Amino acid sequence: MDRQWIKMKNRLSKEYMDGIASFMGVAIQQVNEKNETRCPCKKCLNTQWKALQTVHAHLWEYGMSAVYHTWIYHGEKFGLPRQDATLPNGVEALGPNDVTYDILNDAFPRDMNQDLHGECDTFGGMKMLMQAKVENHWTNKSFDILLEILNWACPKPHNFPTTYYATNKMLKNLGLGYENIDACVNDCALFYKEHVGKDKCPECDEPRYKSSTNEKRKKVPQKVLRYFPLKPRLQRMFMSKHTASQMRWHFDKRVDEYGVMRHPADSIAWKEFDRMYPEFAQEPRNIRLGLATDGFNPFGSMSTSYSMWPVMVVPYNLPPWMCMKQQYSIMTLLIPGPKAPGKDIDVYLRPLIDELKELWEGVPTYDKFTDSGFKMRATVIWTINDFPAYGNLSGWSTKGYLACPVCLEDTSHTKLRNKICYMGHRRYLRKNHPWRKSCDFDGKYEMRDQPRVFSGDEILLQFNHLRPCKPGKHPDNYDRKRKRMPMELNWTKKSIFFELEYWSKLKIRHNLDVMHIEKNICDNIVGTLLSIEGKTKDTINARLDMIDMNIRRALHLHRDETNLVKKYPAIYTLLPHQRQSFCEFLKSVKFPDGYAANISKNVKEDGKISGLKSHDCHVLLQQLLPVGIRPYLPKEVCAPLMELSNFFQQICAKTLKVEDLDRLEVDIVFRLCKLEKIFPLAFFDVMVHLAIHLPREAKLAGPVAYRWMYPIERMLGKLKGYVRNRARPEGSIVEGYIANESLTFCSMYLRNGEIFSSHHERNNDGETNAKLSVFMHNARPCGGYKMVQWSELEMESAYWYILNNCDEVEPFKNEFRQLLEIESPDNLEQRQRKLFPQWLKTRVKTLSKQGLGDATNELYALAYGPDKRVGMYTGCVVNGVRWQVKHIEETRTTQNSGVMVPGTHGDQQSNFYGRLVNVVKKGFQDGYHVILFKCEWFNTQPRFFRKKKIHRIRRDYHLTSVNTTNVWYKDDPYVLAKQAQQIFYLDDPKLGSSWKVIQKIRHRHVWDVPENEAAHEVETIYDEGVDQDGDDIVITSRDENELPSTSLRRDDAEPEIVEEEISLEPIGVDDYEEVLTDDNSIEEQLSGDESNSVHSDDYSDLD
């Protein structure tokens, strides 16, 4: 074969692909021990060794160096005839028969063989320009101006396109496109299938198109649903060897450990589905999907009322670090605004449900990993949504007396003067529990059984009593507002999901969203404790509710002899100076980089907190509130709040144990009952009640990280960034999504699975090819740098720590220790530390001369000793976690210096707590290096004063505080960077300024997921740490006689004078007939507000 193919511009041509195949046949014979060869692409120029698949990808991406005609680095010699070779078995080539090649061949015109400029081809250049536009949210106009500048500035000739339209035309065909389906303006029906040719709505007779006086113009529909076909998008996931292999992860690599859940595949719901449908389970490539939807305002302005609803699916076959990522989430529908669809969302779900029925039967699919075809099937195993959307999708109204969609008709409710509360959690106690016969909760005995768990078949029977309901919001639609019959309960419709034959058999169909439950509970607690106007539940009406029910007399409003009505402060409210101290504590909080937003910005001067986002509430409830309230609230209030905080810490863990969930299912009952005894009835809205169902749902569906709204809200935030034309927000979002989908295809499938980005992640930790344990680390020093000369004492201390923590050196240490014991058993530790380094150097030199395998080059470099010059840095990124030294935090709002390392002190296991002082890069021969952390360690050993033992570390509930005034191990301050676990410290307002509360961190990118060895390995793309600290568990007190023993009234504060005229006479609450209200204004308000307030959660440390 002639090697003119090297100079070809069209790298998609058959000649070029065959040329790459011939080169790979030669290159595979010239690999090193790592199965790598030199890469001759225009970027590497034979200076770097790469894996064969990476070389193949580089040759396609960048082209081969134009001057490399004789392949001297791959076995050929000058003057000898070249040997053509074919690609041997096992090496993949992108050829004319490849599915990916067909897509490219169809997508790009033949003039793509021209250079954009110099050695930059048109495809590669346009891909990078478009990715920059999408990532940085450039407008079309700014992109046109950039192209104009490039056309003017670059030397001629060149082939830069002149407009965004021309650029987009080159790349958009790589996307899978979408369909426009016209909809009725009143959400009655779609002009779809049998209605596709109609000009008027078949339900309300509204016109399909906008009125126009110009009959020659193209008709414009009043409302358009954008539908993104799901089948080809799922099939595309099997077009890359990497993604195709990862789609089998749940079957091939997941460790199935009894009683432990780390992935949805470990859950009861997944395994029960396998049992009911064994044919589906036999094919591990069949896909389990989670369906998510929520409304959001694309304009980001609360003054503009607009709500559009994307519908997305996430594939759960993937491993934890992939399945909730945005690049693997698929938008299937974009339901247009400006009004939310409400319960009429089923109208818009029709195309998706029809396709899900086809996917249940199966579609032929090609699997690149196994190079074979199979019948791919898919199923939706549950939905992910906030509480209003739960009602829209399930058909059970989440308002009114029976608002709980889990308890259904057994929902406990109490009518108050201006609202409904949901108490009655004593129903979950055992039958003979003394609290059931106490009137201190709601003034009544509680003898009812706990609510039933309704099966899918029982729910289907309830639908038999449901009257048919006509969809749509037309003013003449009688079904918009009608009286609900008693036998209909809270059902508003039979959900369209029940058309799927497996839907009624699922153990869990819709998930309660922990994210919004946490936010609402946190708002209730903080608003009540701080008496925030509009947020507190301890209002005048709440006190009148107590009078009506004749409970908690100490908190009743009191009219004195001067006819003034007084409201006495309760023990759960903070006094003004306490509120001020609590807010000062919040202002002092500093979180690690990327962990959470700066919550001090939400603290106001008047001792109030406002503008909290969902993740702010997540962190406040779980970590800050327990620390901040301890000095100010009595034990009767503080204890149940801290127990509730710990409950959410446990339920949000990435790894769940069934036995822990069984305990939490019992404990949450006691925690809510304790709160019922203390807080006003208005505190217990339906969101507080829903917490009692979270342990059961976690047992059924697994960790909440796969089922809550955080990743979905981030996706909504990304879609929101696509809006450029405010007059056509849906069109802007669709075009941006399709462009991003095209770039994702280029990134994931056209480079053999290497994830392409125009920049590294901010916390990229670098790579290392070393094999020795101390040299093998994912650590990248950063920040300020200086080179220093260490003293002999510092050098000896650091070097000994490295040797003492190197696994490969351990056999040599044991050998040397035996020699020392023969000489003398005295002072073994001191003698070994002093003499071992020189002995090791001599020993390894001897082994190296003898050619023994134990003396590797890396071990020789370690034994030879370090350079006396060391690099000192102010920061380091280790396993994706950013660290910074202590002294630079004083002027920053983040805290990245907290260190915890497990170890031993004497004969006892102990955790060492400290702060990072310096990042040390210690060099060895042949470019090897070790990253050390130099730390100051807080002394945790107790001291004695006048024969009294004084502890330097204290535990209060699940909180651990350490005294920071004394340090120890000053002569042994080093740890390996990879050994350090990041923590952060909070001021302890209870114990004083010298005490810090230790807070462990669960990083978003850290997963505690062991893997089985797969039969067929593919080079992994991801390299994420797997360390994860568990949270301390609080055991809830279940003392049957434990109820608040003190008065519920504060005696250390003056009462508040009620200005308004009110009557203190109790009134009876009569039953009334509930009216079914199907206008969704309340639900739209909730959904719209929340969607606008949570997009800043992109900075949260959860996923």
UniProtKB/TrEMBL annotation:
InterPro entries: DUF4216, DUF4218, Transpos_assoc, Transposase_21
Domain of life of the organism encoding this protein: Eukaryota
DUF4218 domain mapped to chain residues: 651-763
Transposase-associated domain sequence ranges: 3-76
Region spans: Disordered: 1078-1103
Domain DUF4216: 928-998
Database matches in PANTHER family: DUF4218 DOMAIN-CONTAINING PROTEIN-RELATED, LEUCINE-RICH REPEAT DOMAIN, L DOMAIN-CONTAINING PROTEIN
Name of the protein described by the UniProt record: Uncharacterized protein LOC110759589
